[in-house]
Amino acid sequence: MSEDALVLRDVWKIYKTATEEIPVLKGINLTVRQGELAIIMGPSGSGKSTLLSIAGGLENPSRGNVIVGGVDITNLSEDELTKIRARKIGFVFQSFNLIRNLTALENVMMPLIFTGIYSWKQAREIAQKMLEIVGLKGHEEKFPRQLSGGQQQRVAIARALAPSPDIILMDEPTGSLDVDSASRVLSLVKWLNEAFGQTIVIVTHNPEIAELASRTFYIRGGQIFEQPPTTTLADKVKEVKASTKKGELEKLQLELLKIKLDALESAAREGKISPEILDAELKSLEARIARLEKFIEK
Ligand SMILES: Nc1ncnc2c1ncn2[C@@H]1O[C@H](COP(=O)(O)OP(=O)(O)OP(=O)(O)O)[C@@H](O)[C@H]1O
User: Fold this and answer.
1) Is the CB of 45 inside a 6 Å radius of any atom of ligand 1?
2) CA-CA to 124 of 20 to 30 Å: which in 18, 159, 198, 219?
3) Where do the ABC transporter domain residues begin and end (predicted)?
4) Does 298 fall in a domain?
């Protein structure tokens, strides 16, 4: 069973301009396991955003492989990649990227529809639950302009989380927020990771975010280095667990993963997903379900 949410294998990125070749990533090897919160730091221009775009299948590596939740996304067709990305990867950007003329609820429903596996009714039900989880119950029918920056970022997080992706990738998620909103968003991120078991990778300059990490990486000179943990993560976990009702979120997460399992199986019966991809996706989903069930039984 696949316990690795993200694997980068010897990933290179060389940008070509008219006059030169710029090697930005030089053979990156990185494994993020399910349930980890990994932070990637590094100087400006070191390739953090490039790495995140490649990990999320938004950009192709010049060489090497990207494996998300057991599926190698490196050589998929554009059509397959779009659907896999929607099911397996959630993105949160600095600028929220919400669609202006859709309500909060509709924004969260969009990626669910893009997965090609959820019905309209399932998408609506999941989107409602997600907005409740991020503390935005009652704001479902508001448009982005009617929400504060922090609330918009929470909609963006609900949207990223809705399809129960194997991994959420965040690029400077608090970059455009004031201190108060940033701290609310950070608490949410920490809570989703610790209590919800969501795997998250964050690219940031913000040392406060780095304090949340279970693993910290630095990019420099095209290479990646892991910094040994220095903070006492166990204390942070205790703090978060104390503030959430025991088992409730895990049960909700399990419910959502089971809806996804049903949706995947019916999509496969209708021939919407190839057997190879279905097989890899089921393995990853079953590993996540088993992990949660074990946790709930404790
Ligand atoms: N499409 C492109 N064509 C050519 N060069 C590019 C392209 N995209 C990025 N680069 C270069 O690649 C390098 C890495 O850029 P990237 O945005 O990944 O860095 P970063 O670490 O995220 O920077 P910052 O912290 O400032 O956001 C930079 O030198 C940038 O100029």
Assistant:
1) yes
2) 198
3) 6-246
4) no
Over residues 62-101, the pLDDT tens digits come to 999 999 999 999 988 888 888 888 889 999 988 878 999 9
Nearest CA to ligand 1 atom 6: 15
Position in ligand 1 atom list of the atom nearest CA 22: 5
> Residues near 145 by Cβ (< 8 Å), separated by ≥ 6?
100
CB of 56 sitting under 6 A from ligand 1 = no
Domain span at 278: 4-292
Please tell me the distance from the alpha carbon of residue 155 to that of residue 96, in angstroms, as a whole number.
Answer: 8
- pTM, two decimals, is 0.85
CA distance 119 to 106: 14
Centroid of ligand 1 to alpha carbon of 212 (angstroms): 25
227-259 tens-digit pLDDT:
876 554 445 444 444 445 556 777 888 888 888
